[in-house]
Amino acid sequence: MASTAAVPFWRAAGMTYITYSNICANLVRNCLKEPFKAESISREKVHFSLSKWADGKPQKPVLRSDAPQV
């Protein structure tokens, strides 16, 4: 027997926790004053690599940057 009373509001709104967390982080960053705002925005950038697998072996990785568009 499941109860909806214990469901977090972000889940009830149809969001994932990551989406909710990103929205909260953006709100906090936008509320900061300079120079803290510029410093926090520079830490927001994420770099990662993706490798596709073929025949059980990784192919050449592709470097990606998931930086917000300004």
List the helices and strands and how they pair.
Blueprint: H1 9-12, H2 17-31, H3 36-42, E1 47-50, E2 53-54, E3 57-58, E4 62-65
Antiparallel strand pairs: 1-4, 2-3
Structure explained in plain terms:
With 70 residues, this protein is of the alpha+beta class. Helix content is 37%, strand content 17%. The chain contains 3 helices and 4 strands, in the order αααββββ. The strands form 2 sheets. A two-stranded antiparallel ribbon has the order 1-4. The radius of gyration is 18 Å and the shape is flat. 0% of the residues are buried. The model has no long low-confidence stretch (mean pLDDT 81). Its main location: mitochondrion. F-type ATPases have 2 components, CF(1) - the catalytic core - and CF(0) - the membrane proton channel. CF(1) has five subunits: alpha(3), beta(3), gamma(1), delta(1), epsilon(1). CF(0) has three main subunits: a, b and c.
Key terms for this structure?
alpha+beta, 37% helix, two-stranded antiparallel sheet, 70 residues
Distance between the termini: 47 Å
For this structure, the quaternary state is single chain
What are the segments in which pLDDT stays under 50 over at least 5 consecutive residues? none
Number of helices: 3
Helical residues, percent: 25-40%
- Average pLDDT confidence is 81
Shape, please?
A: flat
| Alpha-carbon Rg, integer | 18 Å
Q: Care to count the β-strands?
A: 4
**Would you list the SSEs in sequence order as H and E?**
HHHEEEE
| Main sheet characteristics | 2 strands, antiparallel
Strand content: 15-25%
State the strand order across the main sheet.
Answer: 1-4
State the secondary-structure class: alpha+beta
